[in-house]
């Protein structure tokens, strides 16, 4: 069955970015001139995804507004002959987007469970907004390609520094990967550093079969007293195979301040309007640092 649907959880409170997130959704923070969630939506489109469900929460209405049409703005740009800007604005409206609100944040697993009726009996992808991926082939497309071969759930993983494994879900691989695909014995959410089964962390892309909903409906709270998606995936792995695909591209974590800053700089260095000035500025201030 073709993978057509994606779920983007975006209901978090964004407390790591307070006070900025007091009145603005974290997903709307711009990387130069593009909200972070737009990078995720664009990856989905490039991967062949047709329908996207965004799970939102209180204060997230600007996400819906961003992907809606603004006739007054479009007409103004058209009248002034600003065709390039008009094209940019219209790019965010040509997408099949749906929204549902998670009234009470009970964890990532609970947010994904809210997509049950949207997904139905189809395989689907979950795309986390804190992770911006860059590779020749979009990571979501890589997972879809894996599914077409295995017809099994597949998560994206990447090696992280050992001292940081307690921030992630981590896999316990059975053996060395075959062509970058791991068989997995166990999936562990936020393990203690000294007990982590590997340094292979689950990063923000999941391709899941619809049986995951049966697991989520009966999943007990885990780390942080929340419904953890990783715990449900570990249970799913006991009744059907779940693989891990090692990502070799670039991952930018915009979920914390320094990661967001690094991503802005990296993207700025490729942005046609600011890259030359930014390079010159970086060289200038680098010469003044100790």
UniProtKB/TrEMBL annotation:
Keywords: Nucleotidyltransferase, Transferase
MF terms in GO: UTP:glucose-1-phosphate uridylyltransferase activity
Catalytic activity, EC: 2.7.7.9
Domain of life: Bacteria
SUPFAM superfamilies: Nucleotide-diphospho-sugar transferases (SSF53448)
One GO-annotated biological process of the protein: UDP-alpha-D-glucose metabolic process
InterPro entries attached to this UniProt entry: GalU_uridylyltTrfase_bac/arc (IPR005771), NTP_transferase_dom (IPR005835), Nucleotide-diphossugar_trans (IPR029044)
Stored PANTHER family: UTP--GLUCOSE-1-PHOSPHATE URIDYLYLTRANSFERASE
UniProt similarity note: Belongs to the UDPGP type 2 family.
Record-given protein name: UTP--glucose-1-phosphate uridylyltransferase
Source organism per UniProt: Ligilactobacillus equi DPC 6820
């Amino acid at each position: 069955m073709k993978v057509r649907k994606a779920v983007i959880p975006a209901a978090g409170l964004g407390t790591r970015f307070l006070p900025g997130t007091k009145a603005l959704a974290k997903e709307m923070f711009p990387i130069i001139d593009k909200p972070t969630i737009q990078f995720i939506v664009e990856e989905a489109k490039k991967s062949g995804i047709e329908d996207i469900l965004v799970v939102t929460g209180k204060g997230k209405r600007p996400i819906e507004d961003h992907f809606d049409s603004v006739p007054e703005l479009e007409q103004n740009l058209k009248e002034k002959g600003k065709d390039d800007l008009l094209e940019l604005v219209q790019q965010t409206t040509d997408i099949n987007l749906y929204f549902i609100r998670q009234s009470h944040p009970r964890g990532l697993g609970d947010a994904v469970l809210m997509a049950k009726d949207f997904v139905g009996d189809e395989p689907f992808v979950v795309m986390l907004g804190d992770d911006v991926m860059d590779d020749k082939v979009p990571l979501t497309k890589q997972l879809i390609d894996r599914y077409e071969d295995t017809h099994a759930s597949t998560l994206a993983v990447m090696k992280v520094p050992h001292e940081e494994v307690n921030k992630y879900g981590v896999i316990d691989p059975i053996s060395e990967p075959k062509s970058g695909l791991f068989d997995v014995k166990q999936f562990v959410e936020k393990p203690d550093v000294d007990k982590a089964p590997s340094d292979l962390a689950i990063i923000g892309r999941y391709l899941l079969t619809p049986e995951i909903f049966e697991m989520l409906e009966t999943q007990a709270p885990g780390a942080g007293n929340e419904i953890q998606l990783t715990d449900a995936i570990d249970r799913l792995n006991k009744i059907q195979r779940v693989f891990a695909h090692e990502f070799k591209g670039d991952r930018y974590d915009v979920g914390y301040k320094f990661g967001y800053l690094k991503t802005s700089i990296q993207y700025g260095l490729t942005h046609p309007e600011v890259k030359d000035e930014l390079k010159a500025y970086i060289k200038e201030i680098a010469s003044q640092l100790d």
